[in-house]
Amino acid sequence: MKAWKEKFMQGVFFIAACTSVLAVALICVFLFANGIPAMKEIGFMEFLTGERWKPTNEIFGILPMIMGSIYVTAGAIILGVPIGILTSVFMAKYCPKKIYPVLKGATELLAGIPSVVYGFFGLVVLVPLIRDICQKFHWGGNGSSILTASILLGMMILPTIIGVTESAIRSVPAHYYEGALALGATHERSIFSVVLPAAKSGVVAGIVLGIGRAIGETMAVIMVAGNQARMPAGIVRGVRTLTANIVLEMGYAAGLHREALIATAVVLFVFILLINLSVSLLNRRAQHE
Amino acid sequence: MNKQTIGQKLRAYRRRPGSLILMLLVMLSAVATFAVLLFLIAYILIKGLPHLTPDLFALKYTSENASLMPALLNTIGMTALSLVIAVPLGIFAAIFLVEYAKRGNKFVEIIRLTTETLSGIPSIVYGLFGLLFFVTTLGWGYSLLAGAFTLAIMILPLIIRTTEEALKSVPDSFREGSFGLGAGKLRTVFCVVLPSAVPGILAGVILAVGRIVGETAALIYTAGTVPAVPKSVMGSGRTLAVHMYNLSSEGLYMDQAYATAVVLLVLVVGINCLSGYIAKKITKGNGNGEN
């Protein structure tokens, strides 16, 4: 009786553990089964490198959206990474012990704020701000732009980068830093020429995770990026990202249009899988070092 | 470390301008990061608090009051449903990984890999999958249940990971003691290991609640956007975050959108503080001086 119960519960635990495998399998199957045929029908090259997206004319090229996602993500990385890494240096090496818990809580809060709230903030603060600046300098554009989305996403990836980089810096043995100090280097020199290079893999993993978050972000980007489905025309002009394309049109799409949107998600999914893969490779390398 | 006076520090920096610049950059970035957070919270509070009228909490949503009450109730229902599905699954999965699985088992590697993959998938992809699988293939339509299952898959990796950490931090002596007293494996897990891991698991669950409350993209095409409390779990209803998105994209109810943002922000901040508080209790309770 007892042995039977033990075996039964072990089976239950095992099945529960299989759920995540099942979920990933189902997600892959459903996305690929619905997306790949559409890609074939449209033509892989036309779909991936087509510069026009006109669902009403059955023209499905997602290059504008791919470029949109890449531009916006690149902008977020340019703005977010330096600030994120420097802030994590502050957290790990400068911050007085007394205020550390408060600041740590603040970064966690930054990660916890929902993306709609970020989006709303961007909509009511950043968009008018950028619009005014652009008008002053006659750059055109209406404020919803690559620049706006980049600034907002830069803010949103900060907690990811700060968290990962800080723990990477902290995992560097203290004698690296002390050794540098003993050789006469300043506090800053020890950190930036000895500690940070030693934490390189962790820092890169943080950046890659930030890229993943920026590419996958949907709601905040929709609210500030303008969402025009055409090739990006400049950093103060609007773009549409892959994620935005899905949310904006899924509500009314049917037939090939709907499948083309699912194929868009397949492209996004493959991007994310590649990013995940590089993160786990980086982590493995960091553990070996 | 030897103490330097501020004067000594300044003199040292004057001799090395490079270091001074780096130090200033570090300070500037830190100030920028926390200033952005403060500004965001202050801006939304100042703009939103005056619009928190009783009208906003009317039980029925009409085009006049843009009430957030139905959305709030839906959020609570959605959170409860998702947790009911995901928490047992996640805890059982973590028990398998920590207590039962043998080291270096190929299958365990696969489970870990898929869990990692799940935690990296963007929410819109979950939403699309929910639409294809729960809403269309299983024929549930736009419903709370479809939304809850979608969210359950989304928070599963978070719960598995935090539970795993919590179980691993239970000292082996607890297990050995229990075995020594003649308890079986199952009894040891449920009566000894799991109770001492509860605070850690709870902290993870609360983090998951935070994610559910803030989620939008995964819900628009699974739970739908009807601004009312559905009669059953098979009905469609919008959560607070979806409500917030609809208000701000319609652009007709900006005042109410500010007020909704306040409610959402307060909820999330509260949830975060609670999780942090519990996590702090654990480290104190263990008494082994980590952090």
TrEMBL record, chain A:
It holds the Pfam family BPD_transp_1. InterPro entries: MetI-like (IPR000515), MetI-like_sf (IPR035906), Phosphate_PstC (IPR011864), Phosphate_Transport_Permease (IPR051124). GO terms for molecular function: phosphate transmembrane transporter activity. One of its GO terms (biological process) is phosphate ion transport. Residues 66-279 form the ABC transmembrane type-1 domain. GO terms for cellular component: plasma membrane. It is a multi-pass membrane protein. Its main location: membrane. PROSITE patterns: ABC_TM1 (PS50928), PROKAR_LIPOPROTEIN (PS51257). Keywords: Cell membrane, Membrane, Phosphate transport, Transmembrane, Transmembrane helix, Transport. The chain crosses the membrane at residues 12-39, 59-89, 109-130, 150-169, 190-211, 260-282. It is found in: Cell membrane. This is Phosphate transport system permease protein. It comes from Faecalimonas umbilicata.
Automatic annotation (TrEMBL), chain B:
It is a multi-pass membrane protein. It comes from the Bacteria. It is found in: Cell membrane. Residues 72-275 form the ABC transmembrane type-1 domain. GO terms for molecular function: phosphate transmembrane transporter activity. The keyword Amino-acid biosynthesis does not apply. InterPro entries: MetI-like, MetI-like_sf, Phosphate_PstA. GO terms for cellular component: plasma membrane. One of its GO terms (biological process) is phosphate ion transmembrane transport. This is Phosphate transport system permease protein PstA.
